[in-house]
Amino acid sequence: MSRGIDFLIQHYDIRSPDGYKYLIHFMEDTFLHNLREHEKVRKIAHKIRTGLEKINPFVEASTALICPSCKHVCCIRKHGFYNLEDLIYMFALNKKLPEPFFGGNENDTCQFLTGNGCTIERQFRPSGCNWYFCDSLLEHMETFAEYQDFDNEIAEIAGLWLNMVEEFSRNINLPPE
Question: Total domain count for the chain?
Fold first, then answer.
């Protein structure tokens, strides 16, 4: 992670209402006033979105079989919060964020989980949701021939994610300390 991103993470807690509000304002200002500087970030974000859309059918088919019978729900608040990297991605795609709920226990069921699954489309979910696969789910997924394509796509998305964050960091103006 770059110095710029580290600075923002160290100084602004995205899980607090004030930190979240500041970072949303910072992102709005950054993307609004630096369209040209962040064009590469936007292109990378679109590739990530395409990759997430590509893996979605395989993940959805697997979660539909494994998750309903699970006794330990993985979709908890801890995973359902957008982090700073997620904000970069969402703002690069010009996507509105769902309103967060502050407070509660991080092990409570995620605010976006319903009886029919997540209310957020996979490509717009927090990265904690998209990058977390429990052992039962992975073991199930690994039994299918499609798993290798899924694994390759996840690796490609991860590389793009790192590139997006680094590219963003090159073109931001940090607030004074």
Answer: 1
Is residue 94 within 8 Å of 75, Cβ to Cβ?
Answer: no
For 84, what's the count of Cα atoms within 13 Å in the CB-facing half-sphere? 23
Q: Does residue 175 carry a pLDDT above 80? A: no
Is residue 175 situated within a structural domain?
no
Whether residue 59 has pLDDT greater than 60: yes
Q: What is the phi/psi pair of residue 109, to 5°?
A: -55, 140
pLDDT band at 149 (very low <50, low <70, confident <90, very high): very high
- Give the C-alpha separation, 33 to 55, whole Å: 33
Domain housing 89: 3-170
Q: Please, are residues 114 and 83 in contact by the beta-carbon 8 Å criterion?
A: no
In a domain, 96, yes or no: yes
Burial 22-34, CB ≥16 within 10 A → b, else e: bbbebbeebbeee
Residue 176 lies in a domain: no
List, in sequence order, the alpha helices (H) in the chain.
3-11, 17-33, 39-66, 84-92, 127-130, 135-141, 146-170
**Model pTM?**
0.89
Largest Cα–Cα distance of the chain, in whole Å?
52
